[in-house]
Write a structure and sequence with these properties.
The complex is a heterodimer of chains A (308) and B (256). Chain A contains 10 helices and 14 strands. Chain A is α/β, with parallel strands linked by helices. The chains are: A alpha/beta (308), B mainly alpha (256).
Chain lengths: 308, 256
């Protein structure tokens, strides 16, 4: 079993009378690309902020590489790089200087930080703007800078709170590629996102959190298989007769020569359906599949869309 | 990482110092201009109508108070405005997620404010030396006292900046508390010129002791006992430093 990069046990937090977290537990293995999904106010950002020290935890434990995030905060914070959802503003210094400051907070001298700062400015397409102030950058560039800041001390764990919120499609794909590369380098990535397809595409594991509770935790594929439903529609040449018995193990409806099956795993069910139909002398005219997505799973678990 | 994140601490200190030097027209020049005006207008014009106070000319008399006022208002406003700005512009999370202790963050801020207060105070002193040939009787005491008072008020500013929610609150603190207390602390007069009841009230004004401590260091004259002034300076330094660090540790208004 691999080591756990992040472990959260029974985490609770209230803001006044509002219980934001009601016992959240998460185990994120080292090197995992992990997604935290939930509607607004579900408790995602609170969870992240407790891990990084921005929010005071009330009950439960939070540890990074086995060490407590409060008692061993110097160690745990040095292992984490966070790109927060809110973009910060600075009036006084160039973005290059701000990266040096940030590296300094993590104990890097200017000499040590220089190659890293140069590399990140180049990687994120900010080299030409390195003398600019933050307010002079476009929204997309501010987002890139946010990421550069998170990566400047080369952390083992990268936490991204809505990293692609408000960015155009081109930049979103660039950021996805970058995150994939970081994951390939062995980094543990914890991502919260409003774009479920983003989590489905990138994450090896996801947790769905709603009203301060984790309601599901697994790989996107497993969640879809367990909780999602897919549809297979088959059009036959001519009207099929006497198929009810042969196909009794499947849930399906029939309208004239069109059969519609509701299955959990279409990849597994399709060959069996086709072979049964062919054995019974049916001629298949066309097949359409409607795959369930993580969004459907999310919807069925929470009873609402992620943006509601 | 050792018990102290020295690089992080000095980086933040450097940032704080760099921040006010980057806008020196706002943070250094105004105090110099207003003090020059005070010396020219109040000093030179009133000097002809006011006899010497405690054996020194009026212009000379007001300069230690101007040094103190400049040092402590600049020290206060550096930390207060920097902390509030970091809160409002979402920069404070950058510090709170870094492996910096609350003591390191507090002290870095306080040193930044102290340096601004000190620079502003020393510049007025140099102005006095060059403009009216002001003698500095105890130069080391003068430098030490400016540093100590700048530190104390820088710590107070940090606390205020952390607790403030808006620029309005900072302006209120500056306009309704700090400036009146500075003026009433005897920059422009000796409290012996006041009626007895006003003299008594002045003793409850901590800035009165700061101004008179400075006046003693530079001119060798003071309304209050110099030891009491230095003792008060030391007391405020410890009190405000302790409170500023305790507030930072508590995370009040910066962590939820």
């Amino acid at each position: 079993m691999s080591n756990l990069a992040i472990q959260i046990n029974d985490l609770t937090k209230s803001y006044g009378k509002v219980e934001a977290l009601k016992g959240v537990s998460l185990s994120i293995p080292e090197g995992c690309f992990y997604g935290l999904l939930g509607p607004n106010g579900a408790g995602k950002t609170t969870t992240i902020n407790i891990l990084t020290g921005l929010v005071l935890r009330e009950g439960g434990t939070t540890s990074v590489f086995g060490r407590d995030t409060i008692h061993d905060y110097r160690f745990t914070r040095s292992k984490i790089g966070i790109a927060a959802q809110e973009l910060s503003v600075d009036w006084f210094f160039s973005i290059e200087k701000l990266l040096y400051f940030h590296a300094g907070y993590y104990g890097m001298t200017k000499k040590v930080a220089k190659p890293r700062v140069d590399y990140l400015l180049d990687l994120l397409g900010l080299s030409e703007k390195k003398e600019s102030r933050l307010r002079q950058l476009s929204g997309g560039m501010k987002r890139r800078f946010q990421l550069a800041k998170a990566l400047v001390h080369d952390p083992d764990i990268i936490i991204l709170d809505e990293p692609t919120a408000g960015v155009d499609v081109g930049l979103r794909h660039e950021l996805w590629d970058l995150l994939r590369n970081l994951h390939k380098q062995g980094k543990t990535i914890l991502l919260t996102t409003h774009y479920i397809e983003e989590a489905e595409l990138l994450c090896k594991e996801v947790a769905i959190i709603d009203q301060g509770i984790v309601i599901a935790q697994d790989s996107p594929k497993a969640l879809i298989q367990q909780l999602g439903k897919a549809g297979i529609s088959i059009n036959l040449s001519g009207s099929p007769d006497h198929l009810q018995d042969q196909l009794s193990k499947f849930t399906f409806t029939q309208k004239d020569n069109r059969l519609h099956f509701t299955v959990k795993d279409p990849d597994k069910a399709m060959p069996e359906i086709i072979s049964t139909l062919v054995k019974n002398g049916c001629h298949i005219h066309s097949i359409e599949t409607e795959k369930s997505s993580l969004e459907d799973v999310f919807l069925s678990l929470t009873g609402k869309g992620i943006n509601e | 990482m050792s018990n102290v994140n020295w690089i992080g601490f000095w980086t933040l200190t450097g940032r704080e110092v760099g921040r006010f030097f980057a806008v020196w027209r706002q943070t250094i020049i105004p105090g110099l201009i207003s003090s020059t005006l005070y010396i020219l207008i109040f000093g030179f014009t009133l000097q002809q109508r006011i006899s010497e106070i405690n054996g020194v000319s009026y212009t000379l008399f007001i300069i230690p108070g101007l040094i103190m006022m400049n040092a402590l208002t600049n020290a206060t406003s550096n930390t207060a405005s920097s902390m509030l700005q970091m809160k409002l512009l979402q920069q404070i999370p950058d510090l709170l997620v870094a492996p910096l202790s609350s003591a390191e963050i507090s002290l870095a801020y306080i040193i930044g404010g102290t340096i601004r207060g000190f620079v502003n105070g020393i510049l007025i002193m140099i102005l006095g030396v060059f403009l009216i040939d002001m003698p500095v009787l105890h130069p080391f005491l003068t430098i030490g006292f400016i540093l100590m008072v700048s530190w104390a008020f820088s710590a107070m500013g940090l606390m205020i900046g952390q607790l403030a929610d808006s620029w309005d609150m900072l302006a209120m603190m500056q306009n309704f508390i700090l400036t009146p207390l500075s003026f009433l602390g005897g920059i422009f007069y000796s409290i012996s010129m006041l009626p007895e009841w006003a003299q008594m009230i002045s003793h409850f004004n901590p800035i009165y002791y700061m101004i008179n401590g400075m006046r003693f260091s530079i001119l060798g004259i003071a309304d209050s006992d110099p030891w009491l002034s230095f003792g008060m300076g030391l007391f405020l330094t410890f009190l405000f430093t302790f409170l500023a660090m305790a507030f930072m540790q508590s995370g009040k208004k910066i962590k939820v």
